[in-house]
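This section describes the prediction task in plain terms. A model, or a person checking by hand, is given the sequence of a single protein chain and must write out its three-dimensional structure as a string of tokens. No templates, partner chains or ligands are provided. The sample shown here is typical of the held-out split.
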Amino acid sequence: RRYMKHEKENNMSTYLVLVNFTEQGIRNVKDTVKRTEAYRAMAKKCGCTVKDSYWLMGQYDMAAIVEAPNDETMTSLALSAASLGNVQGQTLRAFTADEIGPILNKMVS
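The expected answer:
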């Protein structure tokens, strides 16, 4: 409950970022932790916060949970990160239970 209240106070949206290493990124995979810290700093400059980062087994190499004030800011961060050439990915807008309720109420039959 406390987290949801915090999120509303800051008016931030949550995004799930799924990435795969590019050929360049895998060649320099030993730098991945440093690159992730650089991504956190880049996010901060854009007005976003990287809440968590994970290295994965399976279809994707990494995932991050990012808070951003809006879709435009998150897109700017995603493009900035992709332009470095180490990862390519997918950004998904994530909704909490409190956020999805009003969306569901707008559904038409």
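For orientation: Confidence is low (pLDDT under 50) at residues 1-8.
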